[in-house]
Amino acid sequence: MGTRLQGRVAVITGGCSGVGLAAARKFVDEGAKVVIGDVNAEAGAAVAEELEVTFVTVDVTDADQVQALFRTAFDTYGSVDIAFNNAEILPLDDESILATGPNIWRGVLEANLTSVYLCCQAALPYMLDQKRGSIINMASLAAVMGSATSQISYTAAKGGVLAMSRELGVQFARDGIRVNALCPGPVSTPLTQEQVDSDPDDAERRLARIPMGRFAEPQEIASAALFLASDESSFITASQFLVDGGLSGSYIPPI
Ligand SMILES: NC(=O)c1ccc[n+]([C@@H]2O[C@H](COP(=O)([O-])OP(=O)(O)OC[C@H]3O[C@@H](n4cnc5c(N)ncnc54)[C@H](O)[C@@H]3O)[C@@H](O)[C@H]2O)c1
Hints:
Elements: E1 9-13, H1 18-29, E2 33-38, H2 41-51, E3 54-57, H3 63-77, E4 82-85, H4 102-130, E5 133-138, H5 152-171, E6 177-184, H6 190-198, H7 200-209, H8 218-229, E7 240-243
Parallel strand pairs: 1-2, 1-4, 2-3, 4-5, 5-6, 6-7
Helix pairs in contact: 1-8, 3-4, 4-5, 6-7
The chain binds nicotinamide-adenine-dinucleotide.
């Protein structure tokens, strides 16, 4: 048990699975009071019992439900110090722009970008009152580099998350609030497992391009979120925080 988040209250969206669940474990281990918001009520009940955290069933695309999530954190624990806006969807039929219809596009933009806007909008008033806060918005390497296997709506949403986080980081820097975009490369989670299972050749091609030769474990991304949440990153804001096993720094020469 550590003390890096002792006395802090953290809201984590999408905390029932993958990176969000790993972050919830780490934040609790480091002394934070954690409130998980996730649409999966069944998993939420189990996670709440196991980790002794507060769980709120929330659809992060619904403004009223998001407001209620952050209000629950404040009413239960007295502050909102950390917002890890991490929930998302990645439908398999989000692909090339030539094949992706407007319904998929709008759904992914709602779940992956509008949701982050709503969470920041809900968290900021508490943080401004406290003159303290760390917002970590989950972006992706796809926000920084063009993907050869396109997921056009996801990429556009994550690019929006990155740009919005940068601007919020600048706007609120003198209010004691830091806002950073976390940009992981591929992570080994149920979401990526679904893709690996559906196209093993594609998975093999992706692995070959990662200098470390593997996907990240969720705990490794959660460690980065913990760093950004804690005072150890006190001079880091408006950043694109890359955690990608060297992928963005690598280059395969044509000959
Ligand atoms: N897995 C990767 O390779 C990878 C790479 C880069 C970035 N990311 C980002 O990391 C984050 C976490 O990814 P993951 O792989 O752990 O995902 P995951 O699918 O394992 O978990 C996503 C969680 O979000 C919840 N959720 C989905 N829609 C929701 C909604 N409308 N309201 C509330 N909760 C909702 C789900 O119930 C689930 O618990 C995402 O933002 C993802 O884009 C993942």
